[in-house]
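Standup notes
- DV: blocked on the single-chain target, sequence here:
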Amino acid sequence: MKIQSKIWLTILVVIIGILQFSCKNNGIEPVLPTDTTWIYLGLKGESISSMAIDPTNPDVIYVSGTSKLLKTTNGGNTWDSLYQAVFYSMVIDPRNSQTIYGGLVKIIKSTDGGHSWNDCSEGIMYDGFSSVKFLEIDPNNSNILYAGTAALSGGAFYKSVDAGSSWKVKLNSSVLSMAVDPKNSSIIYVGGDGVYKSIDTGENWTFVGRPSGYVAAIVIDPKNSERVIVGCGWKDGSLFKSENGGESWEAFAEGIPDRSNVMKLVSLKSNGDLYAVVVNTEGGGVYRRRYSDSQWQKIGIDSVQIDDYYNDLIIDPDERYLYLGSAGGVYRLKLN
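- DV (later): unblocked, structure below
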């Protein structure tokens, strides 16, 4: 019996080896990446530029790929193509999840969950090289929207008070990132060639510093609104924080490799833990800094393709999962 068992085990190993070889040579790859704490949700070959999750149903996720918008209604098991365009930014109305705004070289709006779209770019100035880098909705008033553009000619920060029907320039500067104070939506920070702050819903702005390079990401501590963290990129970027609402800045990059560019930052509302997409000569990755930690730690995902142009990082509304959009598809990490 032992001899028969060994024979069958040997046959099984050979069969598995043949199947693995066959899969690799037929372009079929395993669902899980090298680091099995992350689950691969597919979209191989799609460079992900932006993502958004339905605030009322975390199984509904919108993802912009290389040339189209895709949607899943089952948490990433299957994907449907909705619209042929690259979305550099997206935001979903927290009061009506059927209403979605998309940032392309212009701004478009859907009121049926992404199936049809209409232009809502009146007042938005753009040239052949501009793009809408972020879109945000005032958490207390869905009629108030913010948009930021970057372009060779400069870019600008825009505000709409009529649900996107028209836009007005409020800051003449290329802007790449934005954060609204979770405790006071009148306070806004934007990042571009530095950090700007508004205390009147974007009507007036004060320059509050240039920590390093271009400010590609901003988060506000959900526990302490005076604490602002920024990620810098494309020059000599790194991570910095302010403990006084932007009046002064200090390094906050312990554990991050030198000469890294931080492209995305997100924070858990429940405990303030931070997650960052980092790009550097070593390939970069996703880093986490728990609220009580003294440094950042890389959380696997070495097999994921991350670059300067196509990546996004979002947290589902129930804070169960972290989603990473990469140059090779979408990944999901279960949060502790």
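- Follow-up: The domain at 178-300 is CATH 2.130.10.10 (Methylamine Dehydrogenase; Chain H).
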